[in-house]
Specification:
The protein is of the alpha/beta class. The protein has a single domain, classed as TIM Barrel, CATH 3.20.20.70. Helices cover 42% and strands 17% of the residues. The chain is built from nine helices and eight strands. The chain has an eight-stranded parallel barrel with strand order 1-2-3-4-5-6-7-8, surrounded by seven helices.
Length: 212
C-alpha cells in the first residue's frame, strides 16, 4: 500500500468540480490514494458517485477508499473504508470485509492508535495534525509531537491529515508520517493536477534527503 499522497474528494472546496473530475486530475498529478468523502450524500448517492470513481482509480493505479460507510465501500468494490471514532468498530468491520480489504481509522491520541491497530486497522490517520477549515468539526490540531509518538507506538502506516500545505508537508514527513492526506491543498487549488504534482514532488524530495 502506498499512501504518500492521499487526496480526499470533498466537494466543498472543489470550485464546482465533481468527485470524478477531482479524482482524475489528482491521479494525473500523482495521487496514490483517493478517498470519496461527501457528508451531504445519501448512501445510494455515494454508490452512484463511487462506482465511476472505482474505474478511474483502477485505471490510474490508485487506491480507492470510502469515508465512513463500509456498506458503500463494498457496493462500489472499493479497496477499503476509512472509519472515524464514532463509526463501526474496526474489529467488527474486519469480520464483515473480504480478505485484503483495507481499513483505515482516524485517531487523535496514541491510545486510540494502539487500539485501532490491535483491532485490525491497516493504517492510522492522525486527524487533525494542524488546525483546518476543511473539517470544521475536527477540533484543534494535535501537532507533530503526537504524530511522532504515534509513529513510535504502532507498526502500521501512519497518515497525517489536517491543515497540510506545501509549506509544512516536509515537516510532516520528517515527523514520521508515511503519507499526507489533503483536501484544500489539492481539491481547492485552481489546478488540481499541478497542486498534487507539487506535493508529491515535495514528499519524494523529503524521502530522498534521508528523512522518514
Amino acid at each position: 500500500m502506498n499512501f504518500d499522497l492521499y487526496v480526499i474528494t470533498d466537494p466543498d472546496p472543489g470550485r464546482g468540480r465533481t468527485h470524478a473530475e477531482i479524482a482524475e486530475q489528482a491521479i494525473t498529478g500523482g495521487a496514490d490514494a483517493i478517498q470519496l468523502r461527501d457528508k451531504s450524500c445519501s448512501p445510494g448517492e455515494l454508490v452512484r458517485i463511487g462506482r465511476p470513481l472505482r474505474e478511474i482509480t483502477r485505471r490510474g493505479s490508485a487506491l480507492f477508499i470510502i469515508n465512513d460507510r463500509l456498506d458503500v465501500a463494498l457496493a462500489c468494490g472499493a479497496d477499503g473504508v476509512h472509519l472515524g471514532q464514532g463509526d463501526m468498530r474496526t474489529d467488527v468491520a474486519r469480520q464483515i470485509a473480504p480478505p485484503g480489504f483495507i481499513i483505515g481509522v482516524s485517531v487523535s491520541t496514541v491510545g486510540e492508535a494502539v487500539q485501532a491497530e490491535r483491532e485490525g486497522a491497516d493504517y492510522i490517520a492522525l486527524s487533525p495534525v494542524f488546525s483546518t477549515g476543511s473539517k470544521p468539526d475536527a477540533g484543534p490540531g494535535h501537532g507533530l509531537a503526537v504524530l511522532r509518538e504515534i509513529r513510535q507506538n504502532v507498526s502500521v502506516p501512519v497518515i497525517a491529515i489536517g491543515g497540510i500545505t506545501r509549506e509544512n508537508i516536509s515537516e510532516v514527513i520528517s515527523a514520521g508520517a508515511d503519507g499526507a492526506a489533503v483536501i484544500s491543498a489539492v481539491v481547492g487549488a485552481p489546478d488540481i493536477t499541478a497542486a498534487a504534482r507539487d506535493l508529491k514532488n515535495l514528499i519524494r524530495q523529503c524521502r530522498a534527503e534521508g528523512r522518514p
